[in-house]
Each structure stands twice: as C-alpha cells, then as structure tokens.
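hey can u check if this looks right to u? its 136 residues, i copy pasted from the old doc so theres a chance i mangled smth
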Amino acid sequence: MDIKPIRTEQDYQTALKEIERLFEAVPGSSEGDRLDILVTLVEAYEAKHYSIPDPNDPVQVVEYYMESRGLSRTDLAAYLGSKERVSEFLNRKRGLSLEMIRKLHEGLGIPADLLIGQKSQNGAAPVSPHIHFSGA
C-alpha cells in the first residue's frame, strides 16, 4: 500500500487494516515509521469526518447519537414529544425539559449529564438556557 491522503471511506478502511497489520512494528523501523504516518492520516480523516460532539452542548450530543445510530428527527419525536419539539430543540429555540432528558437517557442511553450541559467551575450543574423544568 502506497501512503497517500485519505479521501474516501474506502481509503480510510484500507488504512485501518494496514495499521492493524503494522500494530506491533518496532518504533523507528521503516514499518514503525509507516505506522506513525498512517495513524496521523487516520486521525486527520477522523477529525474531519467523525467529529466528537462538544460534551457541554446537548444539541451536538443528541446530533452525534442520531448520526451514530442512524436516527432521524422523526425518531426523536418519541423522546421529545413531537416533531415540532424536535425541530425547536435542534434549532436551539427550545431547551430540554427534565422529562425529555429522562426519556433520552432511558430510551437511547445518552448520559443525562451530557444532556444537561456545562458544569460550573465548582462542579455543580447550573440551571442553563438548555434546560426548562416545565412539562414536556
């Protein structure tokens, strides 16, 4: 395999297989150098195509879970109450109620602390604009 930029999912999968093959390569050897280069290329591709959500942003967290599980906005209606509520939440016009957080946590396994958002410096979760304690 020639080392080249990873541009497609196929290139990515090929690089992962090569990394697996080279995993025990001796550092500093030609195979070790090849491994280092491939890992750098894979990390760059993953950063661009498989970004990790900001754990302090409930919208990004939910979008990440939707994408990773192949869920649509319609699928979220069961957890948020309606298609309109899903749209309002994903467009940042409405925060999550405590009931919505419970449903997303229990139904999709999303950690509740990620749905609440950023913690204050002393570690306590603040009441933020992302959370509304009124009914769903």
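Residues 118 and 124 are 9 Å apart (CA to CA).
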